[in-house]
Design a protein that fits this description.
With 163 residues, this protein is an all-alpha fold. The chain is built from eight helices and no strands. Helix 2 runs antiparallel to helix 8 and helix 3 runs parallel beside helix 8.
Length: 163
């Protein structure tokens, strides 16, 4: 007669361990995939560098726009003081963006045509931008609508001039 298995015998003892497969690497196995990852990393680094560089280069624009906002919201200044502050702001912004030798000697119509060339329009020479050159010296202050148009023009110039 066959012997009955005892209750104390371990049923798992006779099993053979199955070998586990090798661990799967997270690193790509083909050179094309490695090249694609390398190019992607290079593109990310280049984009980050460009962003930081652009941010550093356009710092003067952000500061000029903040100053323009302060000028615009200063309610206690009269039209002639507003024009004087705008003139100084545009001049300082130009000196930050362009070579000093190119900007500093310009006055009057030459200054306004320089602003037109850097912006790509004619609003300074033939529009409300003329107030920057002559407005602070006129005995009659400009209308509030003209001042608002000038503020918009200066804001557009700060944002869009080509340095």
């Amino acid at each position: 007669m066959a012997e009955a298995p005892s209750a104390t015998a371990d049923p798992v003892a006779g099993l053979i361990d199955v070998p586990l497969p090798r661990e799967v690497s997270l690193w790509p196995q083909t050179w094309e995939a490695r090249l694609a990852i390398g190019l992607l990393l290079l593109a990310v680094v280049a984009a980050a560098w460009r962003y930081v560089h652009r941010r550093r280069v356009d710092r003067y624009r952000r500061e000029a726009l903040a100053e323009l906002s302060r000028i615009e919201h200063a309610g206690n200044s009269g039209p002639s003081e507003l024009l004087s502050r705008l003139t100084v702001l545009v001049r300082r912004t130009s000196l930050a963006a362009f070579p000093r030798a190119q900007v500093a000697p310009l006055i009057g119509p030459a200054w306004l045509s320089f602003l037109d060339r850097s912006y790509g329009g004619e609003e300074f020479s033939h529009g409300v931008g003329r107030l920057l050159a002559s407005g602070p010296y006129q005995p009659i202050p400009p209308e509030p609508a003209e001042l608002q148009s000038l503020l918009r023009l200066v804001r557009l110039w700060i944002r869009g001039h080509h340095a």
